[in-house]
Amino acid sequence: MTIIKRSQGVWKDYLLGYLFIAPNFIGFFIFLFGPIIAVIYFSFTDYNFNSAQWIGIENYIKMFKNIGYWNSLIKTLIFVGVNVPLQSGIGLLVAIALNQKVRYKGFFRTIFLIPWVCLPISIGMTFSWLMQTEFGIINQILRSLHLSGIPWLTSQKMALYSLILVNTWQYLGFHVIIFLAGLQSIPNHLYEAAIIDGATSWKCFWKITLPLLMPAIFFDVTMNTIYTFKIFDIAFIMTSGGPGNATSVYNFELYKQAFTFFRPAYGCAMAVILLLIIMGVTILQSKFFQKKSLL
Amino acid sequence: MYLSDGIIITPIDVYKTRRRINRKKILKKAGVYLFLCIISFIYITPFFWILSTSLKSETEIMRVPPTFVPQEWHFENYRLAWQRGSGNLGLFTKNTIIVVGIIMIGQIFFCSLAGYAFARIKFPARDFLFFLYLATLMIPESVTLIPRFAIIIKMGWIDTYTALIMPYFLGNALGTFLMRQFFFTIPIEIEDAARIDGASSFCIFWKVMLPLIKPALATLVAITLVVNWNNFLWPLVVINRESMKVLSVGMTTFRLQQTVQWNLLNAGVIISLVPILIIFFFAQKFFIRGITFTGLK
Known about the structure:
The structure holds two protein chains of two kinds.
Chain A: H1 2-42, H2 58-65, H3 67-98, H4 105-117, H5 120-130, H6 137-144, H7 159-184, H8 188-196, H9 201-229, H10 233-239, H11 250-260, H12 264-294
Helix pairs in contact in A: 1-12, 2-12, 3-7, 3-9, 3-11, 4-7, 5-10, 7-9, 7-10, 9-12, 11-12
Chain B: H1 11-54, H2 58-61, H3 76-120, H4 126-135, H5 141-155, H6 161-169, H7 173-184, H8 188-196, H9 201-212, H10 214-229, H11 233-238, H12 247-256, H13 262-282, H14 284-294
Helix pairs in contact in B: 1-13, 3-6, 3-7, 3-10, 3-12, 3-13, 7-10, 8-9, 10-14, 12-13
């Protein structure tokens, strides 16, 4: 009797578990899993938001022959390659500085975090104004120092790096918080022991802080890479991909192809490649960092 | 500093060492503060500058060298910015509040429900399903954008609140992950006690567990707020009608409508930031906790 009752209870539990996660998984299947399958399928068709005919790998051939596609891929890789070390690096430095028992730590932390909650569009418009070539405050300051103004957003060479600077500025506080949490989890007695043994603070950093911070660094760099691949807002807002194609990052190109040029099938092919890139990068990073943390 | 026994230290030695260490310490501290102040300066200046620009007259903006504090304070810039595009700024704000508010209700409910199940109820494939769900965080929105847009067209939801709300209403991996972490911290004995008293599972979840994780709910609210308030790509795609736009996208038209009047534009920027900044200043710790627990951007 009791056995039957208990097994009924288990089944009830199973059902309840599935019931509780059901809404999330309905959302997951309709708006994530389904679309991923659809995007793969559409990429092999001539889909135009209406009908879809199988055309094989034509979209991919068109894409790989398109200079605009390669341009957007390279621009994104540069963006990720510069932004991630810069943002995570400065974030780590600031976190270490804040961790030195400074006064007004909360105040500094708040200041660095403000842009993170701000609308990207408002931040973009702010910096369009600050980086304006003639009247922008940055160039005015540079000129007052007898330096020449920099065409931040109007030169093909500079525009991408200007966007990287703005992006770094906007989300730095986020990385500071991540690193700060990592630093605070390192037990203090390790440092005390090391200092008694005569270690300098430099040595403490290399031998204690850095190795123990490795998981936080791995987490942050992985997240940062994934997030930076998503970059779209500021390229759309500040430069609309220009001047020329200088800031036409991957997602901007995808959006343009699908919604401006009305080539959703082509956009789907781009989306599939992006998915593969993200998966590849994540796997590579986890391998690389696993090796490092073993050392 | 304490040295081991066997070494004789005179008070003078102690004094000298202390002074040397102190001087080094002070120098290091000064360096740290200088570094932090420089970075803070880089963070405060842009806000100061848009505030200053927003209060200037149009001729004062173009002055070289620039004036840092406006000579005349043109508060009417704010009124003009608000009225631009027939008061659209107010409309965008209203739309944003409605959309984000409804998304938030859904996410709080469904994320805590699923988070509770993943933390406390045992069922087959639980951890597999959880990690599968969590892995979706990695996927950029642009990957699924086109099929999702196709769904919205099929349903005839273009230019509606439904289009903005539906994809996010049923919870997401980030919030579920957060709630799961918080439910783990609550001692299981509390739950057992309620069960012995004959409470049903949903009742335990609703009446016992949820009130216990109120701070976690506040954290979830903070995260959901930032992510959805600032969401850009999705509203850009599914909304065309001016009157249905949310702040994150509506500001674009605000810019295009003007023959770049920088003072009004900056006033608009400030108005657009006020609501979220007020919330941020009052509920800071929940935002910070949200980052440390989930690592979201």
